[in-house]
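User: ok so my PI wants both of these folded by tonight, can you help

Assistant: No problem, let's get them done. Here's the first:
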Amino acid sequence: AKEDREAPEEEELPELKEGLTSFSFTLKDPVTIPSDNQSHRVFLTSKIVDKAQKEGLLNYHAIPKLSQYVYLNSVFPNPFDFPIFMGKLNVYLDGRFVSSEQLNKTYTPNEDMLIPLGIDESIKIERKRVKKFTEYTGIVSKTEKIVYEYEITIKNGKTRDIALVVKDNYPVSLNEQIKVQLEAPSEKEAEISKDGIITWKIKIEPKATKKLTLKFNIEYPKGLRISGVE
């Protein structure tokens, strides 16, 4: 279960002294540390982001081929005048404790940090295959073509619009005998990379449902084995 903790109030930054390879802090109020041979943490400062700025930093991501959930992330600039070093990070959202994350690098002042904020269960996403059929072409059926079609359904259960990035992919052939053609989406509907990654950037109105279509075909000589598509 998640802890039901309130976020600390914003406090002034302690006096900061920068050395050649480190930082030192002078606290405004004295702190008593027990003499018990144990390690103790001392609170330095905190920063609260106003609501307008916070809304601009939040974004939703989903890869329905890999997960049935929509994830909320924040690209958050380091708000302090000193680096945030590698280690444990407690994440609060709307004043409530969300999770603890591990920073795997040091972030300099104003450098963007990608902070995961967990799953948003009020947004549902489902990916399912709606068609798969084989066509035979050429004289005496020398060529086979398999058509795949998938449908991605997103339901916004929130009372506000959301901006969502959805990623999927289609196979890219490295064999001259195998030809892959993407039928949907078009380049006007999504970003399509050369390595087969498809990125939709969409907005969904409150309580609305949106459907995305992924459709492609694979053509190859009859008798050739094709694997790793689904």
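One down. Here's the second:
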Amino acid sequence: MELKKNSRADILGFFGMPLMNPVLQEIERTGTTLLSSGERTQVRAHVDAASGDVLRRAVEATQPRVACEVGLAFGVSTLHILDAMKHSGDGVLLGMDPSQHSETWRGGGLANVQRAGFADRYRFHEETSQACLPRLAAAGTRIQFAFLDGWHTFDHTLVDFFYVDQMLDVGGIVVLDDVGYPGLQRLAHFIVTNRAYEFFDGASRPAPSGWRQHAKRSVQAALRPLVRDNFTPGDEACKLKLRVDGCKLVALRKRADDGRSYNHFAAF
């Protein structure tokens, strides 16, 4: 007898966990999405199942009244966040993406939010995060969860983090996607060495292979005690950097508001 291959949604249901939204199930099953025009198109540049699970666990842990997401694309991560928010109580998601109606995305993310029945929970701003986030912070907005998946350069995402951190409550979680990218990896290093954030969760990526990478880490670990100065991060921060390096997506929990002196700096 041929055994039926169960979907991830079937497995979740078997263990009594909330089932994923049908639109999200369809996207994961087919790798395609339906545009508002009725055209079906291939989904790309989206979070995978493991990363989606991290987002859902972070939302479940924070149960945000207000959450924030930079980037929309076809809305796969957005659906994970909104679906988890539905199962953990009331709350709204603030989203922003200046390119939602570009030739690449063609409004697909907004169409999926509508199809999934989450339009009443989603507040979308079709503008850059560098324009939107300062305005939200100046208005006194408070959030308990954020997902940063916008323009993948160090400086752009640092600006995103700077304003998100101003709005994020202590105990809240910020998630960074694609921390395998050098710029985003360095940003994650900055956060764990210079700010009061701890590792919450992450989606693992394959460990770097080759003797050069192993030798580099060994040399760095051996030299660290010899070159320590006032700017050298502590041992705990160095351990957090290693945990970040093992992830493609990382969730960091805020332990305290910013209490640094005006001239604080730790190498990252």
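Residues 87 and 253 are 21 Å apart (CA to CA). The two ends are 57 Å apart (CA to CA). Good luck tonight!
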